[in-house]
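re: the backbone from monday

yeah here it is again, tokenized this time
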């Protein structure tokens, strides 16, 4: 093998010379009367000699012997055919000029057609042989049987990349494509074996180890369905990302990523009117409270894309604040970014910030959001969420902020816990304040976001990495999910529709059972739920309800220009009524009264839609 590699150019030249000589002799045998063969032998030999010289010169000038055979493709084979045609023209011209010395022109043309076919064919065969091996001789490593989902350009590029970069790692079984017109056709030598309905059968038949998902132009609903089918096979699944991501890293194989839970949600990409968003943000001073958190930091990222005059990132947790500051200053003008440590509870600190920077837009994302923790420390939810919001609202009013946006949650709807009730009070505060202020106050309400601080997904991944068990509070517990960038994009879009006083409600899509989510994450890790990783039901936590709602029952729903953004009917509460509710809560805070029955009694007086978890869950079970 080493000898062949070392002398490959010489061997290829000899092969070409033998093919050229053989084809002329074959044509001479077929076209020449055997009785006259002796008279024509000199013409045949002269033609072979001029052809050998012509081909050697042509092929060497084109450097075709420096090509690595196993990496050749259709473009290379077309080049061989073109060079054979050019050689035919040269040889034919010489033959026409000296008919007394060379073969008949018909024989020359036929011989060169056969030469072109043979030169390309044996190279294709060599490449096939070189890439066919199942075992890597250098390591003895057995190749993984690979099934590719997709029958388009992306699949073709992946096949090429495998043959060039990973030929000793993968054995391509075939392709899957739902287009019935493509059935049994081949792409780069790989056959299309059927549609998605064949995935399980083929994986079992060929013992498929790995599946590459290489469909680019596919609806997320179909992507979800196909990936769910792939999950049942037990094979490892890798996904080819969007072309824009591939361009950043031209090594195609390294772009293939693991399946993320986002792939299984089946949500279609959100379309945004970036022109209207830019008109709102460009050249304005923007303040984001809680700017170091998962939602707050993504708000900062997307805001900076619209070229604000200045972005003020305000957060009590210095580590997160420092990280987002570093990230943004590495990508944008440092002078436009200001990171400030501070708490929304601190009225003096807030007033100083507003006084110094005079923000025109305020995004209020600072809040305690973890339900079980707030059930243990209810006064902290009231101090931070309710009175913190009240402080930011008053500063926004005092310093003539143009627009104030409260980041709310679906847990504010018919709340069964202190955190949800506190966020509902925040919504009530901004709606009442909007009636008496020049500032336009609004809220945006949505459900869980994947990968956020406190989200179940990072927790499940950690539990899986540790070998389990994965803990789920109830087998029927259901939540709405969307990605952080999607949620933030819709927040920015929603505020372009604002006139003041609205609660914008984001379309969260279909609800997801947390138990199913746990199963999917375990399968994505290449493991079997309740075999490799147990799923343990721990029981509902304090304040937790089985099913989150997006709208309160008494609220209506008004559509906007965007099909994923709606508006709830405004509240009729006045600021005086809100002030009375805040006095009741302030009484708890000042006395540091941590007795839950007393706190819930006051909460029920301030938030009329507050319910006990058992009452709501029982009703949901009956409905379900």
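seq for it, each position gets an aa:
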């Amino acid at each position: 093998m080493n000898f062949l590699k070392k002398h490959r150019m010489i061997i290829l030249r000899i092969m070409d010379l033998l093919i050229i000589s053989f084809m002329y002799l074959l044509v001479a045998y077929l076209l020449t009367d055997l009785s006259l063969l002796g008279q024509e032998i000199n013409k045949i030999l002269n033609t072979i000699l001029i052809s050998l010289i012509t081909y050697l010169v042509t092929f060497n000038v084109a450097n075709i012997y420096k090509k690595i055979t196993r990496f050749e493709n259709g473009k290379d084979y077309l080049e061989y055919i073109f060079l054979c045609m050019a050689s035919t023209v040269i040889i034919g011209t010489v033959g026409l000029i000296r008919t007394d010395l060379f073969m008949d022109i018909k024989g020359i043309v036929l011989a060169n057609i056969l030469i072109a076919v043979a030169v390309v064919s044996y190279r294709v065969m060599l490449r096939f042989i070189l890439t066919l091996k199942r075992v890597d001789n250098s390591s003895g490593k057995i190749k993984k049987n690979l099934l590719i989902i997709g029958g388009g350009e992306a699949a073709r590029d992946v096949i090429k990349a495998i043959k060039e970069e990973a030929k000793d790692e993968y054995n391509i079984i075939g392709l899957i494509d739902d287009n019935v017109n493509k059935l049994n056709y081949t792409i780069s030598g790989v056959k299309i074996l059927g549609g998605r309905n064949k995935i399980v059968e083929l994986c079992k038949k060929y013992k498929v180890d790995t599946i590459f998902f290489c469909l680019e132009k596919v609806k997320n609903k179909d992507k979800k369905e196909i990936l769910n089918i792939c999950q049942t096979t037990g094979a490892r699944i890798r996904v080819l990302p969007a072309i824009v991501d591939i361009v950043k890293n031209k090594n195609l194989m390294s772009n293939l990523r693991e399946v993320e839970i986002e792939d299984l949600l089946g949500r279609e990409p959100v379309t945004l009117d970036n022109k209207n968003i830019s008109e709102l943000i460009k050249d304005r001073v923007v303040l984001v409270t809680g700017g170091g958190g998962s939602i707050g930091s993504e708000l900062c990222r997307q805001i900076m894309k619209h070229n604000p005059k200045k972005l003020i990132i305000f957060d009590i947790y210095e580590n997160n604040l420092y990280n987002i500051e570093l990230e943004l200053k590495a990508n944008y003008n440092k002078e436009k970014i200001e990171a400030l440590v501070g708490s929304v509870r601190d009225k003096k600190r807030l007033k100083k910030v507003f006084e110094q920077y005079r923000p025109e837009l305020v995004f209020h994302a600072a809040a305690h959001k973890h339900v079980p923790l707030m059930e243990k420390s209810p006064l902290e939810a009231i101090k931070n969420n309710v009175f913190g919001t009240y402080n930011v609202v008053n500063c926004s009013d005092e310093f003539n902020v143009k627009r104030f946006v409260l980041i709310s949650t679906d847990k504010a709807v018919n709340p069964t816990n202190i955190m949800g009730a506190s966020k509902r009070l925040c919504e009530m505060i901004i709606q009442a304040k909007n009636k008496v202020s020049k500032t336009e106050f609004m809220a945006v309400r949505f459900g869980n976001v994947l990968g956020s601080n406190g989200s179940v997904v990072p927790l499940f991944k950690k539990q899986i990495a540790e070998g389990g068990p994965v803990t789920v509070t109830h087998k029927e517990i259901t939540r709405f999910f969307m990605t952080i960038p999607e949620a933030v994009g819709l927040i920015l879009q929603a505020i372009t529709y604002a006139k003041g006083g609205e609660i914008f409600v984001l379309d969260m899509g279909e609800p997801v059972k947390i138990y199913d989510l746990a199963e999917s994450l375990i399968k994505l890790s290449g493991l079997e739920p309740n075999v490799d990783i147990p799923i343990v039901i721990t029981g509902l936590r304090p304040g937790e309800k089985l099913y989150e709602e997006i709208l309160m029952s008494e609220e209506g729903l008004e559509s906007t220009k965007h099909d994923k953004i709606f508006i709830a009917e405004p509240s009729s509460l006045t600021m005086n009524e809100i002030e009375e509710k805040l006095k009741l809560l302030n009484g708890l805070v000042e006395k540091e009264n941590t007795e839950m029955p007393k706190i819930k009694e006051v909460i029920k007086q301030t938030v009329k839609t507050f319910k006990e978890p058992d009452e709501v869950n029982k009703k949901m079970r009956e409905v379900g």
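The first helix runs from residue 2 to 6. The chain has a mean pLDDT of 85.
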